[in-house]
Amino acid sequence: MWEKIEHWDRELFIYLNSLGIERYDGFWIFVTDPRHWIPLYLAFFGFFFLAFHWRKASFSTLFLLATVFSTWGFTNLVKGIALRLRPNNTPELSDVIRILQEPTNYSFFSGHSSTSFAATTFIVLVLSQKTRWIYLAYIWPIIFVMSRIYVGVHYPGDIIVGMIVGIIFAVVFYNLYLKSGRRLY
């Protein structure tokens, strides 16, 4: 059964990666770099300070950082155990796929996916009582993780598992946030 899932994952990756259009390569390479999203990260922190007094905003910011760094650490731990090669490092795929980046670490599961969904889910949970528009923040991780398939470095399964892990970490940290922050409100 596991072989069937891996085969499906590989075939879906090849199909999605092949949809790439050379004219848009620069856009997707730009999108996949976390440094280019720094203004958005700062805006997220700013939302806390617009929505809450400085103590609660600072507390929310610290919990958001704890969520992201814990998710990132767990992701790297699993990558070191799973040792799944990235598509761009898989010899039998090199002639079939478009490769726009060539990281050499492992693929399972996507750190871009887990950390971006952890951050977004935590922010949405914290700010959803203040504005319904915060759900639009999910546009960011969706575009961000799509770029990982486009540039040839993650299978869809890596992305999906990363999303699930990120959401779970966000919910766990949000519950800890609620329990430990009651004295602030």
TrEMBL record:
Residues covered by the Phosphatidic acid phosphatase type 2/haloperoxidase domain: 60-174
Keywords: Membrane, Transmembrane, Transmembrane helix
Transmembrane residue ranges: 37-54, 61-85, 105-127, 134-153, 159-178
UniProt-recorded name of the protein: Phosphatase PAP2 family protein
